[in-house]
Design goal:
Elements: H1 13-19, E1 38-42, H2 46-57, E2 60-64, E3 68-72, E4 77-81, E5 104-106, H3 110-119, E6 124-130, E7 135-140, E8 146-150
Parallel strand pairs: 1-4, 5-8
Antiparallel strand pairs: 2-3, 3-4, 6-7, 7-8
């Protein structure tokens, strides 16, 4: 999975439903895979999350209405939302989000981003490790979503 692209994130339930065929897409009627439109992350503090994704991954904020922000991640978009779906149960206090989902960002300098994140007080889950296929590290965002950085 060293070539996992930003668009391969399986973060939102809507994306999981789309990829498992529970929702239809006009682009997959001929058997081709649907493109990822965006990944939605439920966040507790919209401004803190915007700062994390803008300052550490250089994502560009394309819209922000105070409760929902859209960021451009090159080949897809990351949406940040500080609300809940009406069909979801209320969050349990301190419940970790994104359990079992580890989106991967391909970056040019894993160690540099990890060092900047550490200095800013973000939790480093795994320092950069070198493998035969490349380098990988894991960093948690303000809500505990764990992002892999690969080169």
């Amino acid at each position: 999975m060293n070539t996992v692209k930003t668009g391969a994130f399986l973060v939102s339930l809507g994306l999981v439903l789309l990829l498992t065929g529970c929702m239809s897409s006009p682009n997959n009627s001929g058997g081709s895979p649907p493109p990822v439109d965006h990944i939605l992350l439920e966040v507790s503090d919209l401004n803190a999350s915007i700062a994390f994704y803008r300052d550490f991954f250089w994502l560009q904020v394309t819209s922000n209405d105070g409760h929902f922000a859209m960021l451009d991640a090159g080949n897809t978009r990351i949406a940040l939302w500080d609300k809940r779906w009406d069909w979801e149960a209320p969050r349990v206090k301190n419940e970790r989000r994104g359990v079992g989902i580890y989106p991967h960002l391909k970056v040019t300098d894993v160690a540099e981003i990890v060092n900047r994140a550490r200095k800013a007080g973000y939790r480093i889950i795994q320092k950069p490790r070198h493998y035969l296929w490349g380098t990988e590290a894991f960093v948690a965002d303000p809500d505990g979503y764990i992002w892999a950085l690969v080169k």
